[in-house]
Design a protein that fits this description.
- The chain is 0% helix and 44% strand.
- It has 108 residues and is mainly β.
- It has one domain: Immunoglobulins (Immunoglobulin-like, Sandwich), CATH 2.60.40.
- The strands form 3 sheets. Strands 2, 5, 6, 9, 10 and 11 form a 6-stranded mixed β-sheet that branches. Strands 3-8-7 form a 3-stranded antiparallel β-sheet, with no helix packed on it.
- A hairpin with a 2-residue loop joins strand 5 and strand 6 (48-49).
- The protein starts with 10 loop residues before the first strand and ends with a strand.
Length: 108
């Protein structure tokens, strides 16, 4: 096996942008990463990984973007507002983390 590691390009094509939403709207946080080995995409909110497997409101789209169906926002419950990051991993290369995008939900 050759010891020379060729550089494999691994980078974000699209990173999420700040979003202003209203309660009940759907929001897409865009993310797409490029690598010859398809990256595994995960999302963090406020520094914590989201478990999207059992989430009926939030889903990972095929391109890596995050869809939030029907933003929830009340005086005492603001589960969707916050800071989001897209995390792309290729096991042989490592992990890259996107810029931080803020989701703000407008009040009435």
């Amino acid at each position: 096996e050759s010891l020379v590691r060729t550089f494999t390009p691994f980078y974000f094509l699209v990173e999420p942008l700040d979003v202003l939403s209203v309660r009940g709207a759907s929001v897409i946080m865009n993310c797409s990463a490029h690598c010859e080995t398809p990256p595994r995409i995960e999302w963090k909110k406020d520094g914590t990984f989201l478990n999207l497997v059992s989430d009926d409101r939030r889903q990972l789209l095929p391109d890596g973007s995050l869809l939030i169906n029907s933003v929830v926002h009340s005086k005492h419950n603001k589960p969707d507002e916050g800071y989001y990051q897209c995390v792309a991993t290729v096991d042989s290369l490592g992990t890259i983390v996107s810029r931080t995008a803020k989701l703000t939900v407008a009040g009435k």
